């Protein structure tokens, strides 16, 4: 089999060691005679898988004891509705006001979806006609006095903008952070956030699994219209087993958590990710043949969009990359250009192979 490097933004590359273990255990998990896909979610075999995954994730992120870790279906787009349905009850006024900072395509989707259930206030965003290339200075944010929560997307998968700070809020307003595309790639002080959620298909496992980390005092505030399967209080009370969870996704996530621990944990991965991102950005910045349009202090370590100076060469660039085994480099259809997603499972050898190709193609 030809070796390739997969730069897809999601579903994305998984650690080879994880895939090999899953393949070895496909027909018989630990002598049970069953595949994990065949197990009852309430049986002792799967409960042990689930409990290990929760424990290891709590250890990797340093999740405080007063936070619940939930495994749900729905993905990031699903959570854009599930979050306001769970937290709008924090406000005495209905509809509740929720503040949003728009820094890219995903925070925009969150804003638009939440507006169906709450009064969505655009606290900050780009000026008219500007693209998403930076994070507005916090002193320019127009935060509400009585917001139920503040929503941010800490890493924009499509636009390549990443937060490098935790926002300051008024009073005890909880911060809700969509960390889908950089969770477990850098250290995070979970206690600074009320809720962290992430789709698994970037840095954790297969599509279909969503992880929610929620402070306990934020449970029990769901609107009456919130489906019971997505009411965080109900899900927490049943240890994510109120309905059948995405069992195989949880299993793969658990293997990924074990792999991360073997790599030295999140702190060690952060240093690797800094090195990988620096290598790629240095190559893109070397001359004006390629262009990254994101402000340097907001550049994502995970998702790196770039453009060729002469975009008539795009198809030729992609064809040459594919011939080299460098896959999924085409940018999102909404922005065009190219994008390299270099998640935890992407080895530095893959980034170096891409850099070598960038240099060769520009030279030709």
Automatic annotation (TrEMBL):
GO cellular component, one term: cytoplasm
A Gene Ontology BP annotation from the UniProt entry: L-serine biosynthetic process
Reactions mediated catalytically: 4-(phosphooxy)-L-threonine + 2-oxoglutarate = (R)-3-hydroxy-2-oxo-4-phosphooxybutanoate + L-glutamate; O-phospho-L-serine + 2-oxoglutarate = 3-phosphooxypyruvate + L-glutamate
Domain Aminotransferase class V residue range list: 4-354
Co-factor binding details: Binds 1 pyridoxal phosphate per subunit.
Matches recorded under NCBIfam families: PRK05355.1, serC_1
N6-(pyridoxal phosphate)lysine, modified sites: 202
Subcellular location field: Cytoplasm
Functional pathway: Amino-acid biosynthesis; L-serine biosynthesis; L-serine from 3-phospho-D-glycerate: step 2/3; Cofactor biosynthesis; pyridoxine 5'-phosphate biosynthesis; pyridoxine 5'-phosphate from D-erythrose 4-phosphate: step 3/5
Protein name, as recorded: Phosphoserine aminotransferase
UniProt EC number: 2.6.1.52
Cited function: Catalyzes the reversible conversion of 3-phosphohydroxypyruvate to phosphoserine and of 3-hydroxy-2-oxo-4-phosphonooxybutanoate to phosphohydroxythreonine.
PANTHER family noted in UniProt: PHOSPHOSERINE AMINOTRANSFERASE (PTHR43247:SF1)
Family: Belongs to the class-V pyridoxal-phosphate-dependent aminotransferase family. SerC subfamily.
Keyword Transferase applies: yes
Any GO molecular function: pyridoxal phosphate binding
Named cofactor requirement(s): pyridoxal 5'-phosphate
Classification via Pfam families: Aminotran_5
Gene field: serC
Binding-site positions, pyridoxal 5'-phosphate: 106, 157, 178, 201, 243-244
Record's keyword terms, sorted: Amino-acid biosynthesis, Aminotransferase, Cytoplasm, Pyridoxal phosphate, Pyridoxine biosynthesis, Serine biosynthesis, Transferase
Sequence positions that bind L-glutamate: 42
Subunit and interaction comment: Homodimer.
């Amino acid at each position: 089999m030809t070796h390739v490097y997969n730069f897809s933004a999601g579903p994305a590359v998984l650690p080879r060691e994880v895939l090999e273990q899953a393949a070895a255990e496909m027909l018989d998990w630990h002598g049970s005679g069953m595949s994990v896909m065949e197990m009852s979610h309430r049986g002792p075999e799967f409960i042990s898988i689930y409990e290990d995954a929760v424990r290891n994730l709590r250890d990797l992120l340093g999740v405080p004891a007063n936070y619940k870790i939930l495994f749900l279906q729905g993905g990031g787009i699903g959570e854009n509705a599930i979050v306001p349905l769970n937290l709008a009850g924090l406000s005495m006024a209905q509809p509740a006001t929720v503040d949003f900072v728009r820094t890219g395509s995903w925070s925009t989707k969150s804003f638009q979806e939440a507006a169906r259930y709450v009064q969505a206030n655009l606290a900050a965003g780009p000026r008219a006609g500007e693209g998403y290339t930076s994070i507005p200075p916090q002193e320019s944010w127009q935060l509400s006095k009585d917001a139920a929560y503040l929503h941010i997307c800490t890493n924009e998968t499509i636009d390549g903008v990443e937060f490098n700070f935790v926002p300051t809020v008024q009073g005890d307003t909880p911060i809700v952070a969509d960390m889908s595309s950089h969770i477990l790639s850098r250290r995070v002080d979970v206690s600074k956030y009320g809720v962290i959620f992430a789709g698994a298909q970037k840095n954790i496992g297969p599509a279909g699994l969503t992880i929610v980390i929620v402070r306990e005092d934020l449970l029990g505030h769901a609107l009456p219209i919130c489906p019971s399967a997505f009411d965080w209080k109900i899900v927490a009370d049943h240890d994510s087993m109120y309905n059948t969870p995405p069992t195989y996704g949880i299993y793969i996530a658990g293997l990924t958590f074990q792999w991360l621990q073997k790599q030295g944990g999140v702190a060690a991965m952060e240093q690797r990710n800094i090195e990988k991102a620096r290598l790629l950005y240095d190559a893109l910045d070397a001359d004006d043949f390629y262009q990254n349009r994101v402000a340097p202090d907001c550049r994502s370590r995970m998702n790196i969009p770039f453009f060729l100076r002469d975009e008539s060469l795009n198809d030729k660039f992609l064809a040459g990359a594919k011939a080299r085994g460098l896959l999924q480099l085409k940018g999102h259809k909404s922005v065009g250009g190219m994008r390299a997603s270099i998640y935890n499972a992407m080895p530095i050898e893959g980034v170096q192979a891409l850099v070598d190709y960038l240099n060769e193609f520009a030279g030709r």
